[in-house]
Amino acid sequence: MAEKTQQAYPSAPANHGYQRSDAESLESADELKRQKKIKMAIYISIFVVFQIIVITTMSLTVMKVKTPRFRLGNINVQSFESVPATPSFDTKFTTQIKIKNSANWGSYKFNAANVTFQYQGETLAVINIEKGKAGWLSTIKRNAEVSLNSSRITGSNLGSELSSGVLTLNSVGRLNGKVAIMFIMKKKKATNMNCTIAFDVAAKTLKSLQCK
Ligand SMILES: *[C@@H]1O[C@H](CO)[C@@H](O)[C@H](O)[C@H]1NC(C)=O
Ligand SMILES: *[C@@H]1O[C@H](CO)[C@@H](O)[C@H](O)[C@H]1NC(C)=O
Ligand SMILES: *[C@@H]1O[C@H](CO)[C@@H](O)[C@H](O)[C@H]1NC(C)=O
């Protein structure tokens, strides 16, 4: 039993053992350096891969410029008069011009523009839009008062449309501007309005408003 114990735990002797451990420590110093280098290389690789992932993710999300939405808000009809026989109509309503910049990581600065209200491509009224800026994740709402009538409409099926009970108009417009991302990058971005406004002729009210 005693012998066995001695073998298992040799009591620290001798030059021999000492020398060997010296050589070993030299060797292991080199080994340590090598391992450090490997570790360093691994860390750098991880860092590079991480950076690539971060940059790719950023360019797919934060840096990606999304189109702000350009639409009409609620329409409140103030007056609506029509005569199917003539045919003619005359209306006045209030609405809101909305520029929604809710998806970009930066503000949207747009140039002056306009919105036209049309009947089958014929412009009946123009609303001017002053230049402005929709901040980060925000929506600009501008009140607008619109008056329009059928005086400019020539040769169309207005009469039958009024008789059918629903008058359909469009509001179209285009904003040109720039999205400033994280204060550094600027990218041009245009956005279009194309809303369809339907009036209920008999009830003299708005029937529906749909914007693309
Ligand atoms: C409305 O804007 C368009 C495009 O910017 C322009 O061509 C047109 O002249 C403008 N119309 C009016 C009446 O200001
Ligand atoms: C009809 O609209 C035109 C502009 O398109 C305007 O000049 C005219 O005064 C309007 N007429 C009436 C009766 O409101
Ligand atoms: C608006 O949308 C209608 C379809 O709903 C389309 O016929 C029309 O050409 C569009 N107008 C513009 C200016 O994009």
UniProtKB/TrEMBL annotation:
Source organism of the structure: Prunus yedoensis var. nudiflora
Record keywords, A-Z: Membrane, Transmembrane, Transmembrane helix
Official protein name in the record: Late embryogenesis abundant protein
PANTHER family hit by this protein: LATE EMBRYOGENESIS ABUNDANT (LEA) HYDROXYPROLINE-RICH GLYCOPROTEIN FAMILY
Annotated transmembrane regions: 40-62
Region described as Disordered: spans on this chain: 1-23
